Amino acid sequence: MKATSEKRYALLLAARDSDYVKKVYGGYFNVFVAAFGEEGERWDLYRVVDGEFPDMDELHRYDGFVVSGSPYDAYGSDCWILKLCLLLQTLDAMDKKILGICFGHQVLCRALGGKVGKAYTGWDIGLRKVRIVKDLFPCGYLNEMEDIPPALSIIECHQDEVWEVPTGAEVIAFSEKTGVEMFAVGDHILGIQGHPEYTKDILFNLIDRLLNNDCIEKGFAEDAKFALEMAEPDRKCWERICRNFLKGR
Q1: Contact 72, 14 (CB under 8 A)
Q2: Residue 3 confidence class, pLDDT cut points 50, 70, 90
Q3: What residues contact 64, with CB distance under 8 A and at least 6 apart?
């Protein structure tokens, strides 16, 4: 009998499920697995925002980790954020695959010695065209993706950004708004400022919540929603990039 081993991944969830996402998708975990998971894999959920972390003795059993977005600041001093930084440093030392999304992108940068802070140009909410520098991509996960165009649209929702990438990292994508849209370290670290897992309806709901909480102004929210209605994110391309990275293809 041929032995097989299932791939195992962990989502390090740095945000609490919104009522909308729980109602429509059953939680952010399902959103991430639908975007990045494949048949025959095992995905585990750790709500790091609530202090739930994987056992250090179990880390070697995982093929990769995904760090989600969050309403918290990646440069904050909350205990769970500091513990997350230590975990990411450990995973980096183990050469484990780590995919950071939005807050995850920023906290991964911080943990590895880079600098993050408030975005110099303020909020970025909606669709953003990101220019990819294919020549700087680590070898491997773009090999089968010659058809990926040099610029892709992605859903963004952030007011913080990476100021300076860690030593040894490459900036592999940028936009007119944000200088570090993606960075990579070797073939095991990938940070993406945008949200490849988001659907447009998730962002529409998030814009409404930000407006209701006085985080953004009404005119800004209306402009963001109008622009979002006029175009589509390149979700399939982003999902392929993320899947190829996580699976080591």
Answers
A1: yes
A2: very low
A3: 7, 9, 10, 96, 97, 98, 99, 246
Which pLDDT score, from 0 to 100, does residue 18 have? 94
Q: How far apart are CA 73 and CA 81, in angstroms?
A: 9
Both tokens of 30, joined, read 């399902």
Rounded Cα–Cα distance for residues 249 and 28 (Å): 25
* CA nearest neighbour of 204 among 238, 173, 237, 229: 229
CA distances from residue 101 to 15, 155, 168, 198 in whole angstroms, order as listed: 12, 11, 20, 11
How much is the pLDDT for 145? 62
Active-site annotation, residues: 102, 195, 197
For the stretch 52-69, pLDDT in tens is 999 999 999 999 999 999
Q: Mean pLDDT score of the chain, rounded to an integer?
A: 92
Q: 28: which residues sit within 8 A by CB, 6+ positions away?
A: 11, 13, 15, 17, 21, 68
Residues 122 and 42: their CA atoms lie apart, in Å, by 38
Q: Report pTM.
A: 0.93
